[in-house]
Structures
1.
Amino acid sequence: MPESDDPEPNGGGSQKPDGTKKHKTGGKPREPIKAVRGVRDITPDERAIWRVAEHAAKRVAHRYGYREIETPLIEPRELIERGVGEGTDAASKELYRFEDRGGREIALRPEATAGIVRAYFDHGLNQGPQPARLYLIGPMFRYDRPQKGRYRQFFQFDVEAIGGPSAALDAEVIEVARAWLVDVGLNDLRLELNTIGDQKCRPAYLELLRKYYRPLKSQLHKECQERLEVNPLRLLDCKVPQCQPFKDGAPRMTDHLCDECEAAWTLVRRLLDAAGIGYQLNPYLVRGLDYYTRTVFEFYPASASGQQDALASGGRYDGLAADIGQPDAPGVGFAGGLDRVTELMTAEGEEVVSEPAAEVIVLPDGDLAAEAAEVARVTRSVRSAAVDYEPRSLRAKMRAADRLGARWAVIFNKDEAARRVAQLKDMASGEQVEVGWDELPARLS
Ligand code: HAM
């Protein structure tokens, strides 16, 4: 994988020492090995807020009748390239790909939709009741330039309704996305909405777009000049200042829809209105993946200015199944970014009490590992329990137990162990009573 844009701040052997302690291996100084650039750990404390977002996702998905599916993190490279489109950033510049030991071309999934549509056919879900309503929560991989809210491994809550042509499903998945964001406390949202037509009406529209932009070509930035003939739709969502003045006069897809697309476009908006879901029409919203047809949408924090990344986004993809060599199957869905959503939840002061590692901490005072393990085992029939095996003073163990946030400590010394009793201490009130080991479950439940 080329690293042209990437001076590795953390890794790499040639880098200068950064002041951290060096380990010696075979007499040679070694830098501590850090995580790969653009990926991150989610610590147990951070996981608390992630759990809230994941539980909300599952709850909302189930409320709307969506069932969980898991698909592999690795897929045939061709599936991704044909699915999201070979010319897209996700399938070209940003794709993590490799040849496996059997010589197969593999990609780490950059998104979930293509894999889920593959699985829909592989497991006969196309033969069951339609549409198949499915959701997935898991990591995706894109070799994007890392920055806040944009990572090389990131997590999506992905929702798909496959096998249903009705635009009512477009409104439904928009409602699911919104319900999830509201459920995690993000009420202040802006929904942007557009239609990009279908195979019937879009080609003629794209020609109009090319005709409009061709005389302006020299005034566009380099990438847009290249896009003009290949993928003119992307000219509309270009953010480079020099390309902005021309957008206003560009023809709009909504003025060139075929009858079917027009009807779908009307229905989606009517259903959103009926559901009380506000939206802004954005004629420049076209999305970065090739498989979209008709409805496309993105949710932003209401306060966000134009450059901010979307919290959740999606649309209809009626041509995707055929693109990956399957019979036609219409579909619509979205994916929400868990990294961005949890970051915003944290920024907005969402209070999450992170769970203690264990409710009970067993503190042997002395060399009593086997006895402590036994006490913990007894306790675990009713409460989570951990043992402090460290060879340190009881005082130090009490301080550590406090930091862990355990509700009770079970303390005993050699004499007490001989009598099979312990001091059961309520960490909040400080109250302490002597109890027999066998009584612990009754006392703690
Ligand atoms: P997407 O817009 O590429 O669409 O990604 C969906 C969401 O994933 C984004 O709105 C964002 O919240 C999050 N996301 C994307 N890239 C990153 C990144 N590098 N770091 C952190 N978060 C990121 C799709 O993936 C489509 N498969 C959505 C879809 C499902 N369309 C139909 N069905």
2.
Amino acid sequence: MSIAHAPAKVIITGEHFVVHGQPALAAAVNLYSTVSVEAGSPGIVEISSTELGVTARFQAGKEGSFIGDGHRMLEPLMLVIEKILDRAGGRGLGLRVRVESEIPVGVGLGSSASTAVSTATAVAGLLGLKLTRDQICELASVQERSIHKKPSGIDALVTTYGGVVLFKLGQPPFHLEPTDDVRIVIGNTGASRSTGDLVSRMGHRIQMGDMDLMRMSDAVGQITLKAFEAYMRRDFHQLGQLMDENHELLRQAGVSTSQLDNLVEAARDAGAFGAKLTGAGGGGCMIALCRPDEGGRVSKAIEAAGGRSYSVAVDRVGVRIG
Ligand code: PMV
């Protein structure tokens, strides 16, 4: 049996506009997906997801493509597995893939990318296929493109490498040295939504030449560059303020919700350096940055405002076997 784990991610600044070429700052956090893979009946790939409560069986068809029987939600993951079977020359093989995760689904924490990355790593491990991190990330992106239509690729990158990353499309990522001097508290509104739809809507408005949105895009790009510098200087007051500014711009762009705004406000009132929605918005999660000794207070405030809180640390490793 081969087992792999991959972390969740939070976007500290720059979501949405990262799809349109602006930089974004993100961190891997210590909530994990775990995928275990073992040999199964020849020519059949069975995938089961504990969290989604679904199982699907895929059978190698005459054309060489796999035909699904079961839940369509697992088809994008099968695309990743298919690519790896191809690389390993193992199409006739059978696999039993079990997906477990402590990352809430569809709320902006990159659960799909994390699952794709741990699946790619676990399947390659069972087949004895040596893949670099870049190759794992590329393979996982097949699923991301199928689910999210036009992803920036930041989720797959961060969950693969771990740590804190400055990301810009078309440029090599810059990996920052993480610190434990600051805490990230996540607040989940519990309202799930489709990243693909939110990203498409935003993309459509930018394509139509929405000047306000284009100005916001430039402003968020500047915020990310300042946030990067603040993180490098360990100036968390400044970083928190920049997160507040980023949230305000996302709110004006129409991707926040009153629930998210309430959790953000509660975290700030409880002493966080700053807070903002994270990921695509429209529901999902917010994050607050705070001193490690204030994490408990900020978590309680988020819970009192109706959110589910997770006090997390930066994951420094990314995907791992075992
Ligand atoms: O909501 P999530 O975790 O899927 O994050 C999406 C981040 C976006 O910037 C909105 C999209 C992207 O692909 O970068």
3.
Amino acid sequence: MNSFAKQVEMGHEQVVFCHDRATGLKAVIAIHDTTLGPALGGTRMWDYANESDALFDVLRLSRGMTYKAACAGLNLGGGKAVIIGDAKKIKSEALFRAFGRFVNSLGGRYITAEDVNVNVNDMEWCASETNYVTGISSRPGGSGDPSPVTAWGVFHGIKAAARHRLGKDSLKGMKVAVQGAGAVGKYLCGYLSEEGAQIFISDIDSVKTKAMADKFGAKILDGQQIFSADVDVFAPCALGAIINDETLPMLKCPIIAGGANNQLLDENKHGNILKDKKILYAPDYVINAGGLINVYNELRGYNAEVARKQAASIYNTLLQVFEDADKQGISTHAASNIFAERRISAVRAVTAFKHTYDNQSWIRR
Ligand code: NAD
């Protein structure tokens, strides 16, 4: 399929291919939908096998951002950028400044941030050329590390799932298995511990699991044990695609609710299997929106308390998604997609009316 056909099929507004002769920069910026606001999403650097892979990745990721922002109630659209190349070899100030100039040329339709292989320093270079950057520390009002806010949203998402599936308002005494003791996982363990949950932890890094055991009394599980653990909640906070044909038969938990991106290997197939097995799945892009909520607040004048409060409202959004899924007999993932699309359509209708009205009032004058 050619690039335009893909763009049309996935509903993207604009895809920009960027090339800088001096630095060799090759990047693609994809703006999926700006109905709700400017398209915000990070820049990923990856050594793609070919250009089609890069294009497919940026189209998929930017569309995901549209749905994440819509469900989180933010006035943001979905966008993403990829820079093609090996991060260990091609990174330089000149390259990121060249990229920043391309971001700037879009006049704020796309706002960038860090993503895989792109860090705060890289974004500082980018910010030398454009104001359309979030998540940097050098400017006053920078929001810093989003992980605590992401984990705070995940914590409230777990509480919503426990309310809906188990009829419980507190996680006290509940068994929660956290996969990944990284930035999100470790903060989540802290919140769970404060609430009195019993924590099970796995990570490929034994220093990190030991820290969780020492600090929160977490029981350490090995890589495979985490899937078959007899727990109330499985909270994936490491890799994507961990709900698949292999792991599904192992699961004993009634709830999957964690911060990792793209947890379902196949959204439709594995979302439906979870529904049939009566395992309540908190759609990843709904429950892990705290990080996006955090940078959104940076655009409006950062206030940590406001950001945390908004992240906590993921509780209500998830309850609505779970109810919608039950009512319609569909997977929670399908229900959250519909939830997002409903908001975008409603706002689009208002915007269309406003444009018509504005045009008419102009004609009258
Ligand atoms: P991180 O790199 O800090 O932590 C990931 C952890 O997972 C690491 O400790 C790593 O050792 C561990 N890990 C890797 N493979 C593993 C395996 N097979 N089994 C167990 N543990 C394994 O990353 P993070 O920022 O905590 O993000 C975790 C997930 O949450 C990612 O999927 C990320 O995309 C998603 N996410 C993060 C944020 C955020 O604010 N950081 C926001 C939204 C989504």
